TrEMBL record:
Residues 1-96 form the HTH arsR-type domain. The keyword rRNA processing does not apply. This is Metalloregulator ArsR/SmtB family transcription factor. InterPro entries: ArsR-like_HTH, HTH_ArsR_DNA-bd_dom, HTH_MetalResp_TranReg, WH-like_DNA-bd_sf, WH_DNA-bd_sf. The keyword Lipid biosynthesis does not apply. It comes from Blautia parvula. PANTHER family: ARSENICAL RESISTANCE OPERON REPRESSOR (PTHR33154:SF18), TRANSCRIPTIONAL REGULATOR, ARSR FAMILY (PTHR33154). SUPFAM superfamilies: Winged helix' DNA-binding domain. CDD domains: HTH_ARSR. Keywords: DNA-binding, Transcription, Transcription regulation. Signal peptide: none annotated. Pfam families: HTH_5.
Amino acid sequence: MTDFSKDAKIFKALCDTKRLTILDYLKSGEKCACVLIENMNIGQSALSYHMKILCDSGIVNARQEGKWTHYSLSKRGSEYASKRLLELTTPNTENQSNCCK
């Protein structure tokens, strides 16, 4: 049986409008948490909550600089997420059941 726990983290990260907005901001490069807080008009705790989910999914990287955390898209994580979505949504005609014939 396949373990889908990593996939669930990826898709959880993508199923929220605020997290999708964060990803859209990060497309243009690394952003400090202070910039995301200001641009999104959310509090530090709300941003931390969303960033934990994004980082746990592997789609976003975080690095500490002083008291602020800087976030960027993870090329490796994004490629993995794209690959898994394609794998999970592409029909596998080799394993089709003939139970009703």
